[in-house]
Amino acid sequence: MRVISYSGDNHVELLRCGLEFFPALIAAIDEARAEIYLETYIFSLDDTGILVRDALVRAAGRGVVVSVITDWVGTGRVESKQLKATLTAAGVQHRSFNPWFKRGVARSHRKLCVADRKVAFAGGLNINDDFFSDDSRRAPLPAPRWDFAVRISGPLVEAIHREMQDQWIRIGKMKLRARWDRFKMGRYTQHGTEPGQALAGLVVRDNLRNRRTIQRAYLQALGRARETAFLTNPYFAPGRKLRRALEEAALRGVRVTLLLGVGQFYLQDAVAHSFYPKLLKAGVRIIEYTKTQLHAKVAVIDDEWATVGSSNYDGLSLFVNQEANVVVSDADFAATLRTEIEIGLSEGRLVQLQDFLHSPWYKRLWYGTAFLMYRGIIRVITLGQDA
């Protein structure tokens, strides 16, 4: 079993939505003097994306080595081509992750950046305008998309830099022997820290050495929970192990609260609803966020353990896509994030068990059918892994 690579003495700052994230990201890019790595799932060429793109171009213009990875599906085929042409012409190195599905169905869903090995960013925000939905409809939102990232300084930056550097090399042209050597080097180990120092670690998911690392981090945190667990996610379709961990925590007296996004995808909502009755009977409290599009993938457990990242609670994020979360063990950071989650809870709708016990038969049939469809698709994609 691999464990999280923790380091102490990190400063981790919570960034709320694009209003705080993009100015901080652009400032770090503008201050860089040597090297920038950036990864994102979506890089839209909207007003926000152009601001980030132009900052990257400015950096390359003053001699900074800039390397950008965008996902071919998330960014889009045409948009990827346009972005690559602009960046390459300006001296920015750009690679698309898995174009034309040449390496299977996996996508890179990570949102990471490191500038000069001094400052790093991680979280759930793509490079796009958060006043519009992040699907093909691009529908105007009633409020900015609700999401979080973190700005990191300290020893953890080096670990994120190393992971991003390796990712850049991995998706390029590498000989088989070189890939095997990097695979052997890429195992996570626990680092000792001095008493009293805050801990933070990078948790990544890939289809080689870290296939279940992010799910295991959640399972271990829930297994140790004694008082409270707040979990926020837009796409709720976890496998049996994570569902069982939520139920077992609630049954032993932990106050488990799920804040979930709804309203973006009809099928996704139906799959999530198929899980509600059993969770509610176990004592899990479920709130559906209704103010705007929820995109945050964050959690706080026992006011000490917290995570911010890119991983959803669905089969794609937990078993297929490449993801990156930062885990923080620090009471002050956990309190800050919990406050934000509680604000989100106040802007949502409490789900009642009676809503499902007395729902019409055709709705119950639809929820069950949606789950069976989802499970079938995930089992085909993951070659039978737990869904």
From TrEMBL:
Q: Where is the PLD phosphodiesterase domain?
A: 104-131, 290-317
The source's domain of life comes to Bacteria
Q: Which PROSITE patterns match?
A: PLD
| Catalytic residue positions | 109, 111, 116, 295, 297, 302
Q: What class of enzyme is it?
A: transferase
Major site of localization recorded for this protein: membrane
Query: Catalytic activity, per the record?
Result: 2 a 1,2-diacyl-sn-glycero-3-phospho-(1'-sn-glycerol) = a cardiolipin + glycerol
SMART domains, sorted: PLDc
Q: Which SUPFAM superfamilies match?
A: Phospholipase D/nuclease
State the membrane topology: Peripheral membrane protein
Where is the protein found, in the record's own terms? Cell membrane
What biological function has been recorded for the protein in this entry? Catalyzes the phosphatidyl group transfer from one phosphatidylglycerol molecule to another to form cardiolipin (CL) (diphosphatidylglycerol) and glycerol.
Q: What is this protein called?
A: Cardiolipin synthase B
As recorded in Swiss-Prot or TrEMBL, the protein's gene is named clsB
